[in-house]
Structure formats: C-alpha cells, structure tokens
Amino acid sequence: MTPPLSRRLLAEGLGSSLLFATVIGSGIMAERLSLGNDAVALLGNTLATAAMLLVLITILGPISGAHFNPAVTLVAALRRELAAGDALAYVAAQLAGGVVGVAVAHTMFVMPALMIGVKTRTGAGQWLGEGVATFALVLTILGSVRYRPAWTPLTVAAVITAGYWFTSSTSFANPAITLARALTVSFSGIRPIDAPGFIAAQIAGALLAALVARILFVADDKVPA
Q1: 5-21 CB burial, b ≥16 within 10 A, e <16
Q2: CA 209 → CA 72, 111, 132, 191, distances in Å?
C-alpha cells in the first residue's frame, strides 16, 4: 500500500535536507581540513555524500522512493509511476528541504545561513559532464529497481561516487541540489548564473536515460533471484 502523500513529502523534504546538508557541510569541512588540496577536499566530499545517500535511500526509499531529485521525479511521472500533482509536490518538498539543509550546514560552521555562490562552473565540457552524470544516475536507478531492487541504495551511492571523479562537473546530477549549491560560497558552490546550464543538461540526461531504459530494461525479462 502506498503511504499517504503527507508522509511521502516529509520523507522527500527530510531526505533532501539531510543530503544537501551533507554535500555542503562536508564540502566546508573538507575545504578547511585539506589545506588547499582540492583532491583531498573532493575525496572527503565524495565519501560523505555517498555514505549519506546509502543511508537515506535505505530508510526512506520504502516511503517515498527516495528521489531527493526533481530529475528522478520527472522520470517517475513520465513513466506514470507518480501522479503529476504528487510529482509537483515532491519537487516543492525537495527544494524546500534543500534550502533548509544548506542553512543548517552553514549555521553549523558559523556562516551566514544563505549566501550567493561564487564558484564558476560553466562551459560545454561541464554541461556535458552534468548530462552524463544524470544519465548514469537515472539509468542506474531504473536498472536497479527493475533487476536488483535491494541493491538500489548501494548502486546509487556507487554511481554518485564514480560521478564525482569521472565527470568534469563533479556530478551534481540534480536540479534541486544545483539551486541549493547556488546558495553557498563553499567548495561545493556554483554561481547562480551558471545553474540554468547545469539544470538543462541534467534534464536532458535524465530524459535520455528514461528513453534508453525503455529499450534496455524489457518488462518480460526474467529478473535474477
């Protein structure tokens, strides 16, 4: 039985808040401790994000599906796994929870609750990186749910871990977190003017993944035990 919308929205909002606080907070901590070594800072940011994703998808997935991502919600709506009205409510909860997460992360580190991002992230290479990262994320989710649902928390954490390191953009792969990162001046931030390019690439990557999944993951395939 599907949980009531109120519970699902709470799960989406809370999950987005904790995830976004982890991305921003670990970025701040990593930047302060790495002494200018960006590779070490990115590694710390990656490990914290992947660990929190694994936890959140495990505990909240049974309630809301653990989207925490408008691109994932869009694909679910297009696949008619989520009603349009519910999808809009999911996105609102993700955005609201994300802003709270950013404010909490900043406050923990004695910084202003919300700021304007200053880190430049733009150009064809980074847009392609975001498209690839989101494609990989959505395809991973759809394939895991189809064939290995119990593995979904691990596979999603793994593809995000890989994306942080093999994509030029460090794998935001999420329109809501892109907007949230535009509200921080930390290591994880992005200039607001650069956010639309990232979001457009993310939506394109998600839609392409949904199309490929329709061809690749055939409904009458035998699901492995």
Answers
A1: eeebbbbbbbbbbbbbb
A2: 10, 38, 9, 27
Burial class (CB in 10 A: 0-12, 13-18, 19+), 122: middle
Query: What is the pTM (predicted TM-score) of this model?
Result: 0.96
Q: Report the pLDDT value the prediction gives residue 221, as an integer from 0 to 100.
A: 72
Are 176 and 70 in contact, with CB atoms under 8 Å apart? yes
DSSP state of 151: G
Measured in degrees and rounded to the nearest 5, phi and psi for residue 168 equal -65, -25
- How many residues does the structure list for the chain? 225
Q: What is the pLDDT of residues 111-137, one digit of tens each?
A: 999 999 999 999 999 999 999 999 999
Q: Name the residue type at position 68.
A: F
Buried b (16+ CB within 10 A) or exposed e, 192-211: eebbebbbebbbbbbbbbbe
Is 225's pLDDT higher than 70? no
- Computed over every residue of the chain, the mean pLDDT equals 96
Q: What value does the mean pLDDT take over residues 12-27?
A: 98
- Separation between Cα atoms, residue 184 and residue 206, nearest integer Å: 25
